[in-house]
Design a protein that fits this description.
With about 525 residues, the chain is mainly alpha-helical. It folds into three domains: about 10-220, no CATH class; about 260-385, Alpha Horseshoe (Serine Threonine Protein Phosphatase 5, Tetratricopeptide repeat), CATH 1.25.40.10; about 385-510, Tetratricopeptide repeat domain (Serine Threonine Protein Phosphatase 5, Tetratricopeptide repeat), CATH 1.25.40. About 75% of the residues lie in helices and about 0% in strands. It contains 26 helices and no strands. It has helices at about 10-15, 35-45, 50-60, 65-80, 90-110, 115-135, 140-160, 165-180, 180-190, 195-210, 215-230, 235-245, 250-265, 270-285, 290-305, 310-325, 330-345, 350-365, 370-380, 385-405, 405-420, 425-435, 440-455, 460-475, 480-490, 500-510.
């Protein structure tokens, strides 16, 4: 799966936003047809794109036609956002957003003193600026950003009750202030005004609390700010959770939650649970674009299972993807074949790996952006160490035997795995678990201690679990100080599983450790 990218340089300058008009506070007048527009915008955020066009036809009576042009372009943008490497909608989006810009600007020519008209001009340009940032059109995006700010300031000058104009202006103010040096040079060359991040964030939050149509979009944009610039991952997660609760049909929010839990919170088990929740929703048709969501979820699950040394189950997920032969997300099939090849290599199945790498190269599209071809070619040139791969596969087979209550068979396999390759801390942890199940606690503790010595090379949840199991054995042996030290390590290990942390914390409380 493609790693989520930070906003481009120009995005830091002008904001990554889809600005749409909303109702002003109660004391000010409503935009025309705002109730119908709000329902359409809910459909967009919930990825119910099949309903948008029919709703637009009904809304464009009391609502201005120009507003519907902006919403039409925005719906296409959100479809692109679900699969950003897919360019099949680019031409349709370009036509739609150009039409929205032309129609809203013509409205301002007819009614130059109408703040609502200027408001929609800002919305039309804002739909295009995000797409230009995505497609790396920096200078054009910067010019659009300047036009957004001008249009929204004009809207507020004509009608101070259009509170939501503050959101777009606030985004500009924020990003113009936090922009890196390169973006500030670009801003100078294009004669773009500077910004103030404190005032900008205040404007955004003010607009968010007072809007009837903008809150969902505001939450999405604010989560990016909290994640990348304010370093408040907790707030970013809270915003995405709220979006998922309000718009459960959109797979984007759950997939981004899974990414954050992995890459920012470093909680592999929580991320895995989130990807599994998305897969279940896709399989049960509880999300829109279910096939796309299923492929993304399976790619995410497979990546994390591999990170947790459960490669056999990663293979199952990847095989399910290649059996689907998906067209979306863009590059998904090639990525699945590549990951399948890497997984088979890790298990010591070189022939299957080679076939998968060749299939990955064959599946690469004309606008490949993931580096699949080069990576697969490199994997074909260099085979992994066969002894290490064999030991890894045997260790995993032994672990599965233990899961099926075959402790004797598991012990034989894991003893062989550590004799073949004794530098794998996961194999030592697994061997310890088997020995503990067979009531050989001294030997089990020895294996946990070996795993702990290699903890930095171990998946964090397994390292934390090794500390927890060692602590329990120390405690039973009457070694209180060593038990407390190990419980503390288990409770604080960076990236350790939540269940492990909770169990270790309970033990420390029971031992009356402050």
């Amino acid at each position: 799966m493609t790693r989520r990218r930070p906003p481009a340089v120009v995005a830091a300058l002008i904001g990554v936003l889809t600005f749409l008009p909303t109702a002003a506070p109660a004391a000010a007048r409503d935009l025309r047809g705002v109730d119908a527009l709000a329902r359409i915008y809910d459909d967009i955020l919930d990825a119910r794109f099949d309903r948008v066009e029919a709703e637009l036809q009904r809304a464009c009576g009391p609502a201005p036609k120009e507003a519907c042009d902006v919403l039409h372009a925005t719906a296409l943008w959100w479809q692109i956002l679900l699969d950003p490497d897919n360019r099949s909608l680019d031409d349709e989006f370009t036509d739609a957003v150009e039409r929205a810009i032309q129609s809203t600007e013509a409205w301002t020519v007819r009614e130059p003193r109408n703040g609502e008209a200027w408001f929609y001009v800002g919305g039309a340009y804002a739909a295009r600026v995000q797409w230009r940032v995505l497609r790396n059109q920096k200078v054009s995006a910067a010019r659009d950003g300047k036009r957004i700010k001008q249009a929204l300031e004009q809207a507020l000058a004509l009608d101070p009750g259009l509170e939501d104009a503050n959101f777009g202006i606030g985004m500009y103010e924020y990003y113009a202030d936090v922009a890196p040096a390169a973006a500030k040079v670009l801003r100078f060359l294009l004669l773009l005004p500077g910004g103030d991040k404190v005032d900008g964030l205040a404007r955004m939050l003010r607009a968010r609390t007072r809007g009837r149509l903008l809150q969902g979009e505001a939450d999405y944009q604010l989560h990016i700010i909290y994640l990348w610039y304010e370093r408040r991952t907790d707030r970013a997660v809270s915003l995405l959770q709220s979006l998922h609760e309000r718009y459960p049909g959109n797979p984007l929010f759950l997939s981004q939650l899974a990414e954050i839990r992995d890459r920012y919170e470093h909680d592999l088990t929580a991320s895995l649970d989130t990807w599994r929740a998305l897969l279940a929703a896709a399989r049960e048709q509880r999300v829109n674009e279910p096939r796309l969501a299923e492929v993304k979820a399976r790619l995410g699950i497979a990546r994390l299972l591999n990170a947790l040394d459960q490669t056999d189950r990663a293979v199952d997920q990847l095989q399910a993807i290649v059996d689907l032969k998906p067209q979306q997300p863009a590059g998904g099939l090639a990525l699945a074949w590549l990951a399948l090849g890497e997984s088979q290599d890790r298990l010591g199945r070189r022939d299957e790996a080679v076939a998968a790498y060749r299939a990955a190269i064959a599946a690469v599209g004309p606008s490949e952006t993931h580096g699949v071809r080069a990576t697969a070619a490199e994997r074909l040139r260099r085979a992994p160490d066969p002894v290490r791969a064999s030991a890894y596969r045997i260790s995993l087979d032994g672990w599965r035997r233990l899961e099926h209550n075959d402790a004797a068979g598991a012990e034989a396999l894991l003893a062989r795995a550590v004799s073949l390759y004794d530098r794998d801390p996961v194999a030592h942890y697994r061997y310890g678990r088997v020995l503990q199940a067979r009531k050989d606690e001294d030997a089990a503790l020895t294996q946990y201690e070996v795993a702990i010595r290699g903890a930095r090379e171990c998946p964090p949840p397994i390292a934390a679990a090794a500390y927890l199991e060692a602590a329990r054995l120390y405690e039973r042996a009457g070694q209180r100080d060593r038990a407390i030290a190990a419980y503390r390590a288990a409770s604080t290990w960076f990236g350790g599983g939540a269940d492990t942390r909770a169990a270790a914390t309970r033990a420390l409380t029971r031992l009356r450790v402050p």
